[in-house]
Amino acid sequence: MAPVNALLERIVGASREPALYREGGVPDDFEGRFEALTLHLFLVLRRLRELPAPAADVAQDLIDAAFAYLELGFRQGGISDVAVPKRMKKIGRSFYGRLGGYEEALTAAAPDALEVALLRNVGAGVDAPALARHVRAAAVVLATRTLDDILAADPLFPLFADSIAT
């Protein structure tokens, strides 16, 4: 589980890149950080799905670790033990809905489908074209990585500013 926890730390780090919030317009609040984390998790999980075993096991361990991380955040934020399961259920629905939505948008024939999905999920203030370029650039980088590369790569994603340069 240690390699998965280290992977999650790198994903969280990428999702907290200040440029995502400053230049990308991702709201710097719980919802915005959740959206950035979900987007980066989606990219890694998408690649893991394409790789041979034991990548599927790593993907499940990564999801488990991510949800434990989110649950800990709720508890540290003062959410009561009674309310945490309700919040986690809602987060789970949102997370899995976004995974499906982003996959559909990334593979859609419409060139702006990803931008539309990002606007819907991240919010109206996001620079959807820039964030979509970042997602596509990260997907290209991840497509070249093996499971061992994913578990060891640091950084795992291109920097936001580097991936949106035209």
What are the defining features of this structure?
166 residues; mainly alpha; 9 helices
Describe the structure.
The chain has 166 residues and is mainly α. Helices cover 74% and strands 0% of the residues. The protein has helices at 2-15, 18-22, 30-50, 55-76, 84-107, 113-122, 128-143, 147-152, 160-164. The longest helix has 24 residues, at 84-107. The model has no long low-confidence stretch (mean pLDDT 92).
Summarize the structure.
The protein has 9 helices and no strands. By secondary structure, it is mainly α.
What characterizes the major β-sheet?
none
**What share of the residues lie within helices?**
over 70%
Oligomeric state of this protein: single chain
Which spans of ≥5 residues are poorly predicted at pLDDT below 50? none
How far from one another are the termini?
Answer: 38 Å
Mean pLDDT: 92
Estimate the global geometry from the Cα principal axes: globular
Number of strands: 0
Radius of gyration: 15 Å
Into which percentage range does the β-strand content fall? under 5%
With helices defined by DSSP (H or I, 4 residues minimum), what is the helix count? 9
Order of helices and strands: HHHHHHHHH
Structural class: mainly alpha
Topology:
Blueprint: H1 2-15, H2 18-22, H3 30-50, H4 55-76, H5 84-107, H6 113-122, H7 128-143, H8 147-152, H9 160-164
Helix pairs in contact: 1-3, 1-4, 3-4, 3-5, 3-7, 4-5, 5-6, 6-7
